[in-house]
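Batch manifest, entry 17 of 40.
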Amino acid sequence: ELSDLNNVIDHFTQRRDAVASSLSLHTASISPIRVLPQELLTTIFYYASFDVTDSLDCKSGSPWVLGRVCGLWRDILLSTPLLWSTVVLDLHYN
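Output type: structure tokens
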């Protein structure tokens, strides 16, 4: 009987660990940023693009960097012409 109880405990311990692992993998999908409306994210991205010194700089240009955060953000950025309607070039060479 004690052996049966230990087996039950082991079974539920494994299930608990599997659920905890699954929860940690899916925590990002329930993040508050995921529930923001697309229009609000677009507005945030628009204002973030004001700080761009060279919009063709793929390493630090705002739309490029924001587009690497996740697929949702990349889709929003690529489908919003307003975010790509202004080109800022740094023509000062040192």
